[in-house]
Amino acid sequence: MTFDPDESGVGLQADLPEDADQWSARLRRTAVSALPPARLLPDRQPAYVASWIYVFGALTLAALAIVVLTGMVLAIEGPTWWHLSRDGLFVNSMHLWSVELFFFFMVIHLWGKFFMAAWRGRRRATWVTGVLAFVVSIAAAFTGYLSQQNFDSQWIATQAKDGINATGAGAYFNVLNFGQMLMWHILLLPLVVGFLVIVHVLLVRRRGVVPPFAPDPEDLVVPVGDLSVDRTVAP
Amino acid sequence: MTVHQEVVGRLAQAVISLNGPGRYVHWGFIQISVANLVVIALIVVVFVAAVLVPFPRRSGGAR
Predict the structure, then answer these.
(1) Is the pLDDT of residue A110 over 60?
(2) Is B15's pLDDT higher than 60?
(3) Which residues pair with B26 in a beta bridge?
(4) pLDDT tens for residues A81-98?
(5) Which pTM does this prediction carry?
(6) A50 CB near a chain B CB, below 8 Å?
(7) Residue ranges covered by each domain of chain B
(8) CA distance to A57, A137, A155, A175, B28, per residue, from A183 (Å)
(9) Torsion sign over Cα A82, A87, A90, A91
(10) Between A44, A50, A108, which is nearest B46 by CB?
(11) Contact across the interface for B53 and A53, Cβ inside 8 Å
(12) How far is residue B61's CA from residue B59's CA, in Å, rounded to a whole number?
């Protein structure tokens, strides 16, 4: 493939026969095949999505975005700012309350998906990544409580150390080591949560939103006129 | 602090006072703070509402 800097759209040429075996071409074909643009960002959703219970996944994502943005501001400004200044206290509270809403919405999302058995239709990986994101989010929130730099975080750390030590993980995950907990909270766990959430959303786009259960034929009996007549409608 | 802020602050404290030790509910071996219990109850209420409350539809009909 020749490189011509004067050509419009240079570098965007793709799918030339001689490049078909390159890893970039193979990865691109796989990605586009799995998630064509119309599926990645659809304009319409199935009619059954028109229910409030389907809203809570997006609400969880919105809360997570606020968590990340406020966390970035806290990381830039530091503990003196978030403890003592009026703006710092406000952003610190935004960080806390967006986490509260994040878990609030995520639990409703979890219950809704559990009761509609959202792992149906080759959606097991979607369910599993959601479960993992939930579990890792709990660890991220826990290390956040340990990173507050106040008496509350000291109390939580001294209470939690016995529980963590009882699991045998205390040597590697030392809740009394503030620097370690801060790194888990602002680097490692956000990376894991972010990765899991991105994979989760991409899987939702790939497999589609799970449909509701088919109605039970018994529920379709229409009690009109002679009730002894079975008016069951074929589904 | 302005008079307005003072009044709003006192009103908020009158509704929910977070001063003092937290209150807990004991039921056998189960112990949970009232604050956590309230949050769980709110989650249940919102979940039931999300299932039962009709979703607004476009006037053009179902898509």
Answers:
(1) yes
(2) yes
(3) B31
(4) 999 999 999 999 999 999
(5) 0.82
(6) yes
(7) 20-53
(8) 28, 15, 19, 12, 39
(9) negative
(10) A108
(11) no
(12) 5
